[in-house]
Amino acid sequence: MVAVVILALGLLGLAGMQAKSLSNDLSAYNRSQATQLAYDIADRMRSNVTVLANYITPSPSTCPNNTNPCTACTTAVLTCTPAQLAQKDLFEWNRNITATLGNGATGTISNPGGAFFTVTVSWDDDKDPVTGDLNFAMSFGP
Q: Which phi-psi region, left, alpha or beta, contains residue 66 (left: φ > 0; alpha: ψ -120 to 50)?
């Protein structure tokens, strides 16, 4: 009887450790995805340096709908201006943030001064609206 109780407690502990492991695994996956998304927009900005100011998003931006604002940038022959390309890049970036990190995930790009930009990706890691969201931030220079 005592052995059964000890075995049951051990199995409950094992189940708890497994659940915590899965939670940490998802958290690590989300962090790596946020890192990739931040580097993605940084690379897009570096390839379109003539209109870097067009990438700045002073407040968290989300993808409000699934309509690309610049269809001229999606054809085989690019006929869009650098400003339109920046608009398309932001649309695709925000869509990728939402698709990868879930609804409510946001991205911001700021230029606090000087030649460096800060990219921040925020998401709700624990799906708890009470606790604060996690974020990944990086600074880079074009």
A: alpha
